[in-house]
Amino acid sequence: MVTIESIMSIDKGNLQEASIGLDENDIPQLVEWLSLKDDNIRYRAFLLLQNRSLFFDDVYPYWDTFRNKLTSDNSYQRSIGMMLIAENVIWDTENRTGDIIDDCLQLLNDEKPITIRQCIQSLGKIASSKPDLNDKIASRLISFNLMAVKETMRKSILLDILNVLCTIRKELKSDKIDSFILNALSGEILDKKSKKQMEARL
Question: Is 44 found in the same domain as 91?
């Protein structure tokens, strides 16, 4: 049976291996610990569930728990919900992702820039698994108001958006996407190094 002591003693480099070795009965306890106030325990439980989701579908049954976190008053909980949904989209044979995509996209308006970034990065994972949502995701990312976030975060957020659009572009050819990318590469927000990296990706 998993304990707080046992998860805190796992070396960070062994988290993936530890997540594979979990007992299925440990999952409910880890999900419960996501709500703890202690950041260290909460984060460790999150990492184990995130890694577990790469290999097994036994975290997916907690989909509704993660969905409820999207509207939490706590930004950390909103991020956790978004990221665990994104990891479990690969197991979503019931196509529940389409039902909650609007809730996910709502986090693009979050008050916390880090939550916005985690939302965008998670949308990239969703887009990879659910190409039928690509048009909706791309439209929202293209219309994102970068000027609404503080200047120090604009470059990071724009790069996150561009990375997701590059993923979507493999499946969905769109003048809107190409135009957005071109404008970003000719604009002032990205530095020369970032522009070169994006051009290489394209």
Answer: no
pLDDT score at 166? 94
Distances from the Cα of 33 to the Cα of 28, 107, 146, 153, angstroms = 9, 23, 34, 30
From residue 133, give the alpha-carbon distance in Å to each of 87, 97, 104, 172. 16, 9, 12, 10
Confidence (pTM): 0.93
Same domain membership, residue 127 and residue 96? yes
* Whether the Cβ atoms of residue 66 and residue 88 lie closer than 8 Å to each other: yes
Structural domain including 184 reads 60-201
Do residues 28 and 116 both lie within one domain? no
Amino acid at 67: R
Burial 27-50 (b: 16+ CB within 10 A, else e): bebbbebbeeeeeebbebbbbbbb
Model pLDDT for residues 166-188, shown as the tens digit of each residue: 999 998 889 999 999 999 999 99
What digits encode the pLDDT tens for the residues 146-172? 999 999 999 999 999 999 999 999 988
For 88-106, write each residue's pLDDT tens digit. Answer: 999 999 999 999 999 999 9
Structural contact between residues 198 and 185, judged by C-beta atoms closer than 8 angstroms:
yes
Q: How many CB atoms lie within 10 A of CB 18?
A: 19
The pLDDT value given to residue 201: 82
Q: How many CA atoms lie within 13 A of 33 on its CB side?
A: 23
